Amino acid sequence: MFKTVLFPIDRSRETQEAVGVVVEIVQKYGSRLILLSVVEGSEEADEGMESPDVVARLLEDAQSVFKQQGIQTEAFERQGKPAFVICDVADEVSANLIVMGCRGLGLTEEGVTESVTNRVINLSPCPVLVVP
């Protein structure tokens, strides 16, 4: 059912909370697991900007966590607007499911328009599972 699962990751608590769900799905369906870290372009650079070393370490750490569960992963690092990059990579790898943590910006109009998760839900070429 879910041959390829895309799991966009960052250093957030929400990503950590979604790991268990990803493990269950991948083990149950024998899925191929793709990890993705998106670095926003330098035009948007701010104190949250991740250095290449930090992103590489994030992906290595995530791969290690899944390897301990007997799950092999492929990892991608891309640059750009997160929602668009996530959807582009989902299309590129023929993902059957995207699993994301939810940042909980709330249901205010500002939260909805600024939410990467909301944008991915609206643009995704496949189903999106949001882990609260």
TrEMBL record:
UniProt domain UspA: residue ranges: 1-132
Pfam family, any one: Usp
Annotated family: Belongs to the universal stress protein A family.
Protein name as it appears in the record: Universal stress protein
Organism: Scytonema millei VB511283
